[in-house]
């Protein structure tokens, strides 16, 4: 299963397969059951993750008790809550497993120790994080300037698997719309697709 991590790391490094295997040797991999809460909103995060298999949802609950889905993390995606700018370092989000998950588990407290042992790992991690942050920034910019229908089509193009892996109400929350609006958009999209096929 670690082969997924090694293949991902290859995109950001010139290291050989054997060097990457050495870097990932001893990396803890843990299985989590569907429904497991990895992080509660308000807690201080001490762990980061990398998804080898499964789907993790990032969400927040507002003062009215309404859940707002912020993101979904699936295979080959890292899951880290960036909150160092926060005064009390507490997380504004929760993380939960939507499926049975196999995750690489990183201890933020021993992160520097790992970098000291493998100096090349720090540069590799920074490169991967910059790529993640860049992609998130681009997605957010596109999100705020697009209509709900455009967001749905972008999702269909970039992450169609989510349509079958995620409950519709969570997907609607992620797109910033009501579940009934998502149903209407899906119907219009399917009707449009049928016309093109005909």
From TrEMBL:
Matches recorded under CDD domains: CAP_ED (cd00038)
Key words, A-Z: Activator
PROSITE patterns according to UniProt: CNMP_BINDING_3 (PS50042)
Domain Cyclic nucleotide-binding: 11-57
UniProt-listed Gene3D superfamilies: Jelly Rolls
Top-level division of the source organism's lineage: Bacteria
Protein name (record): Cyclic nucleotide-binding protein
């Amino acid at each position: 299963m670690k082969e997924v991590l090694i293949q991902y790391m290859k995109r950001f490094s010139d290291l050989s397969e054997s060097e990457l295997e050495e870097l990932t040797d001893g990396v803890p991999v843990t299985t989590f059951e569907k429904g497991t809460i990895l992080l509660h909103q308000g807690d201080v995060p001490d762990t980061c993750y990398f998804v080898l298999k499964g789907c993790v949802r990032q969400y927040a609950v507002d003062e009215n008790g309404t859940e707002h889905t912020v993101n979904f993390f699936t295979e080959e995606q890292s899951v880290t809550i960036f909150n160092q700018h926060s005064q009390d370092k507490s997380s504004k989000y929760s993380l939960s497993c939507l499926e049975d998950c196999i995750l690489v588990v990183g201890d933020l407290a021993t992160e520097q120790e790992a970098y000291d042992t493998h100096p090349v790992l720090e540069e590799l991690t920074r490169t991967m994080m910059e790529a993640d942050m860049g992609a998130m920034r681009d997605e957010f910019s596109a999100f705020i300037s697009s209509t709900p229908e455009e967001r749905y089509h972008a999702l269909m193009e970039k992450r169609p698997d989510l349509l079958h892996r995620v409950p519709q109400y969570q997907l609607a929350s992620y797109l910033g719309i009501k579940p009934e609006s998502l149903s209407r958009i899906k119907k219009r999209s399917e009707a449009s697709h049928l016309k093109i096929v005909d």
